[in-house]
Amino acid sequence: MAEIESISSYRTSRIRKVLEEEGACCTGFADVSRLGLPITHRYPFGICFAIRHDDEAINRLPNDESWNNMSSSLMEKARRIYQVVQELLEFWGYQYSRIPSTTRIDELPDPGEELPQKTLATLSGLGWIGRSTLLVTPTHGPRVRPGALLTDMPFEIDSPIVQSKCGNCRACVDVCPVGAIKGNLWSQTTPRNELLDVSRCYNHLWSTKATLGRRQLCGLCLKVCPVGQENRRIY
């Protein structure tokens, strides 16, 4: 038993180090076996990482040119991170399944249908879900792009975050131009529709398509969150 735990500790540390070397700003490991989803029966453990957004691109929101340029760069960095982690898991003889990110807010799955990246992020201790439904990490705030893998390789597990740490802050609620953010605090049992009016947010993002010929970015809730601005923490 001690030998197995030692091997697990080494492999957990190894993956954490590789993720850091490839540009991840934070990493966490979770036991998802108790969720009872079909995929977690096969892959009972999760790896979650985050890549820091570029502050200049965020501070220029809703400018979409700088955001799109940054997104392309982060996508390539995430692709490389997935590749090196997958190669390690294969080398050690384990299987894995990548959790895809959803790009359109109207395509987000209902809680319980599948395992979203942000759920795994909270279970692995990366952060909590803000009033805006963005993942908020203690050091980088919502200024991160998450990524996640499920696997059958056992890890040393990080402590999950089960409640919001937004406190009395309502910056994202106050800045939302269409009142889509309802202002409630998240916990692990909070349905998404108690936090965000998805249709109101989505309709706002596409409201200028007729004049611009494309979807207009918003991102104001991401921009104003005080956590992550100059790496400020709130606790």
Descriptive report:
The protein has 235 residues and is an alpha+beta fold. 37% of the residues lie in helices and 13% in strands. It contains nine helices and six strands; from the N terminus they run H-E-H-E-H-H-E-H-E-E-E-H-H-H-H. It has helices at residues 2-21, 38-42, 55-59, 64-91, 117-123, 171-175, 198-205, 209-212, 220-224, and strands spanning 26-31, 45-52, 96-99, 128-129, 135-136, 144-151. It has a four-stranded antiparallel beta sheet with strand order 1-2-6-3, sandwiched between helices. Strand 4 (128-129) and strand 5 (135-136) form a beta hairpin. The chain is globular, with a radius of gyration of 18 Å. It starts with a helix and ends in an 11-residue tail after the last helix. The model is unreliable at 103-113 (pLDDT under 50).
Compile the SSE list and pairings.
Blueprint: H1 2-21, E1 26-31, H2 38-42, E2 45-52, H3 55-59, H4 64-91, E3 96-99, H5 117-123, E4 128-129, E5 135-136, E6 144-151, H6 171-175, H7 198-205, H8 209-212, H9 220-224
Antiparallel strand pairs: 1-2, 2-6, 3-6, 4-5
